[in-house]
Amino acid sequence: MPAATLAPSSANASFPTAPSLRRRIACMLYEGVLLFGVLSASTALFLLVRPALQKLGLDSPYAIQGWSFLVMGLYFTWFWQRSGQTLAMQTWRMRIETAAGVRPRWPQAALRYVLAWLWLPPSAALGHALGLVKGPFVGVLGAGLLIWILLAWLDPRRQFLHDRLARTRLVDLRAPRP
C-alpha cells in the first residue's frame, strides 16, 4: 500500500479525527455479519478435526470457544497489520493506526485485539454473581459492552480504552467537512 494512504487523515497530524460512535457501532454490526461467515467456516474445520481432538483428550466444552477466539484474533490482527482496516472498516472508511500514523505491527495489533475484550470478564462475573441465565445474562453482557463503548466519550480524542492502552487510534478517513 502506498505510503500516502497510510498518512494521518487530517491536517493536524498529531490529532486526527476519530469516527463518530454511531459509525463505529454500525461498523461493528457489519463486522459481525462478516465474522458470521468466518466463524461458520472455522467451526466446520473444527468439527472435522474434533474426532482427533477427542482421541487425544483435548476436546472440552471450551475448545470451540478458544478456537473461535483464536480465529477472530487472526482475522483482526491480519487485517490491522496489513492495511490498518478490516473489510467492514474499509466500507465505513476508518482505520487503525499507531500514534505515529502507521498501521500497527503484529504484536501491537494482537495486543489491541486482546484488550478489546476487557469489557467481557467483569460483565460475565457480574452476571454470574447475580445468578443470571439466558436473556438477563446476555442483557448484562450487552450493558457491559455498551458501557465500554460509551467510555470513548470520556476520552478527549474519543478513542476506545483498548486503543489508549494499546497505543493505537481509530481514525476517520472521510474528507473533512467544510
Automatic annotation (TrEMBL):
Bilayer-crossing regions: 29-50, 62-80, 113-131, 137-154
Subcellular location: Cell membrane
Membrane topology, record value: Multi-pass membrane protein
Domain RDD residues, every copy: 19-166
InterPro entries linked to this entry: Pra-immunoreactive, RDD
Keyword Isomerase: no
Keywords assigned by UniProt, alphabetized: Cell membrane, Membrane, Transmembrane, Transmembrane helix
Name of the protein in question: RDD domain-containing protein
Organism encoding this protein: Cupriavidus numazuensis
